[in-house]
Design goal:
This protein is α+β, with helices and mostly antiparallel strands. The protein is built from 16 helices and 25 strands. β19 and β20 form a beta hairpin. The longest helix is centred in the N-terminal third of the chain and has 76 residues. The two termini are about 60 Å apart.
């Protein structure tokens, strides 16, 4: 391949001289070196053997080259003159110090010998027996001292020999690291310059009106981003070139009319009855719709007219390199970012967006079976990610004490309240009450790292959901979100990891797996699969779908053990009835691409409302300026608010120091509407709603609210 091709396709490097070459089966090869592993697949056994032979020969050559470089001083890699001078100066200093030690050794030996002679003469004198014993002890100590001094000098000489022997190897390693760092900096800077030139070229090009052209470019961007994503420099990354992660189970759709006859051919581990899958009586029937059905729309018709659009996003350019080069490895929440990277919503409002498909929980209330109810809860947990597929912009970091309310009690039967309860680390508490029979609460801490090419967002914390009538208490956590192509290319977001939903009353469980995107996989992108099982481990439903489109549920009527995979794991085969759609994503509003890809709910979240608390996110001035398209003013206002928050934090730290000096306790910041308690179910310390907000809103008494804006 040419170097240009290698630049686009090379996924990393591995040191063959220390690599292990293994064969898994007739076509697979495994290369491993420490934490890095490559899985390669040949087309045939003959081709695999050719590759193994070539790799073994290359490994032998690499070992010979490494040995030659260690032994032959003429093979030393070129280093700069300053590095050589520094190395020679160090060795010269070590030699000088060794000569000083040798001189000291000679003096010690000379004076030590004289001391021993003097002591021997004293022993020969006629002295009292007690004095002779003491002189003899001193003589022995002097001998030990001389032996120790000689050992020290010999150790120093050995150290210098080792330093001279290994100095060339150390110099080569240091020079290689320096070159790699310089090459990385030059590559990132070049990519940033190319990105800026492409932006200018795009702004100067005529607009593309054809929808097919837009689809083609999006597809290309997805392919490029997938290839680029594969070359992460994480030493613990395990690469699968020609293999894909096989599912842990297989589903086969059964015909309910012939189930009993065909079921006898399977060695069932668990069985169900197809007549339980009653279309007329089941709650699932009302969920087999892509969106609100007509009756639901009439029931949930808003009483208040909400806005359906916001000002279009301005087309401002930004020099990414000037910001990104100082951000690698830092915590995202501690990086001063301009609003150009933001969307005009706060993190509290993004958290509230989890309620976009709240009707799933309203339907779950009507379920008589806890496993059936678990299916709706699982679909709800997946639906919260549907708004992120195009939302690559960063929400505003809430100020400490900032709140956000969403009162839809009259329209949809629920009211929601969020509060930023901690700033470092940033943590938000959320509480939702629905008069239709459920309560949801959570405390989420966002941990995020910028890795140069991608941004990892790890939500930490548990989500609790309790149904009033049954007392079923569900707990789960969120998966990791990754934003790719931060420096150059089309930004795209992926969700990966596993969610375990546990009903702590009935002990039912649902294990959902979010499959990470892979260019080599034949699976549907953004795939989510899972199984709902009861307390005894018996599987009842199979969940399947994608986190950006829909989730389906299939009732299991038969399960059996299938064939053993190449990894030695035995797969489970589930025979299921036809799947039913529990959730399907609402279409985005018209012109969404120019409105930050906001959904219908997101468009209303920052709509001005009266009677809200003075700490509400709707009243945040920098966010409001950005929504209006006045980004320069928004950046100035954002800096003012952040500096005001820093001043409050410095004052609080000074108060803490003063209290410590006086021997008094200092509680620090205390959330206004939430309080920390140990959760009775999980045993974790979590912020829960303590009440008082909606009463204060009714009275319009906000005297306890801090001045944060």
């Amino acid at each position: 391949r040419t170097q240009a091709e290698m630049a686009h396709t090379c996924r990393g490097t591995i040191n063959l001289s220390t690599a292990h070459i293994d064969t898994e089966d007739s076509c697979n090869i495994v290369l491993s070196n420490g934490g890095r592993t490559y899985h390669l697949k040949a087309n045939s056994e003959v081709e695999r053997q050719r590759w193994v032979t070539a790799l073994e020969l290359a490994k032998a050559k690499a070992i010979r080259m490494r040995n030659n470089q260690s032994d032959d001083s003429g093979d030393e890699e070129p280093a700069s003159q300053s590095d050589k001078s520094e190395l020679h100066g160090t060795l010269k200093t070590l030699s000088s110090k060794l000569e000083d030690l040798s001189t000291c050794n000679d003096l010690i030996a000379k004076h030590g010998a004289a001391l021993q002679r003097s002591l021997s003469e004293l022993e020969n004198l006629k002295l009292p027996a007690e004095s002779g014993e003491k002189i003899k002890a001193v003589n022995e100590r002097a001998t030990l001292f001389r032996i120790t001094s000689n050992a020290m000098i010999n150790a120093c000489r050995d150290f210098l020999d080792l330093a001279e022997t290994h100095s060339r190897k150390w110099q080569r390693v240091l020079q290689y690291e320096r070159e790699q760092r310089i090459r990385l900096e030059e590559t990132i800077e070049q990519l940033a310059k190319q990105h800026n030139s492409l932006e200018r070229a795009c702004r100067g090009a005529p607009g593309l009106s054809s929808s097919s052209t837009g689809i083609t470019s999006t597809a290309k961007g997805s392919v490029q981003s997938a290839k680029g994503e594969a070359s992460d420099e994480d030493e613990e990354t395990e690469y699968f070139d020609a293999m894909e992660d096989a599912p842990a189970f297989i589903t086969v759709t059964a015909d309910p009319k012939h189930h009993r006859r065909s079921g006898s051919n399977l060695s069932g581990a668990s069985e169900g009855h197809p007549e339980d899958w009653n279309l007329e009586d089941s709650v699932f029937e009302s969920s087999n719709q892509s969106s609100y059905n007509e009756s639901t729309c009439k029931d949930l018709l808003p009483k208040k007219r909400r806005r359906t659009r916001i000002p279009d996003k301005p087309n401002y350019s930004l020099n990414l390199w000037s910001i990104m080069k100082n951000c690698i490895g830092k915590e995202l929440s501690k990086i001063p970012m301009p609003v150009n990277f933001n969307e005009p919503l706060s993190m509290l409002q993004r958290l509230t967006e989890d309620l976009e498909y709240h009707e799933l929980l309203d339907k779950a209330v009507k379920c008589e079976s806890s496993t059936e109810q678990m299916c709706f809860v699982a679909a709800f947990s997946v639906s919260s990610y549907s708004t992120t597929v195009h939302r690559t912009a960063k929400p505003f970091n809430p100020l400490l004490g900032e709140t956000y309310e969403l009162d839809r009690l009259e329209e949809f039967g629920f009211r929601s309240l969020c509060e930023q309860v901690s700033h470092h680390p940033p943590a938000a508490a959320h509480h939702v009450y629905s008069r239709r029979g459920w309560t949801l609460w959570q405390e989420i801490t966002i941990a995020s790292k910028f890795r140069g090419k991608y941004l990892s967002i790890m939500p930490l914390g548990t989500i609790h959901l309790e149904f009033h009538s049954s007392g079923n208490h569900y707990v789960w956590r969120k998966v990791t979100s990754t934003v790719h192509n931060i420096i150059v290319g089309k930004l795209w977001i992926d969700q990966s990891g596993e969610i375990e939903i546990v009903n702590h009353k009935s002990k039912d469980k649902c294990q959902l797996k979010f499959t990470p995107y892979s260019y080599f996989s034949r699976d549907v992108p953004r795939k989510v699969t899972g199984v709902v099982s009861d307390a005894d481990g018996k599987a009842h439903y199979v969940m399947s779908g994608t986190w950006d489109e829909k989730m389906e549920c299939s009732k299991i009527v038969q399960s059996s053990h299938g064939s053993t995979s190449t990894e030695g794991k035995q797969k489970t085969v589930y025979q299921t009835l036809s799947p039913k759609v529990l959730w399907k994503k609402y279409p985005l509003p018209e012109n969404a691409e120019n409105m930050y890809f906001f959904s219908d709910l997101a468009l209303t979240l920052n709509e001005p409302e009266e009677r809200v608390a003075p700490t509400d996110s709707r009243l945040r001035p920098d966010q409001r300026l950005m929504e209006s398209g006045r980004w320069d003013e928004a950046n100035v206002e954002k800096q003012r608010l952040e500096e005001k928050q820093r001043a409050v934090r410095r004052r609080r730290e000074a108060e803490a120091v003063e209290a410590l000096e006086e021997g008094e306790d200092y509680e620090g910041y205390i959330p206004l509407w939430f309080e920390r308690k140990v959760d009775a179910v999980t045993g974790e310390l979590i912020c829960v709603y303590k009440g008082g907000y909606w009463e204060a809103k009714d009275k319009q008494d906000w005297s306890t609210c801090p001045d944060i804006f």
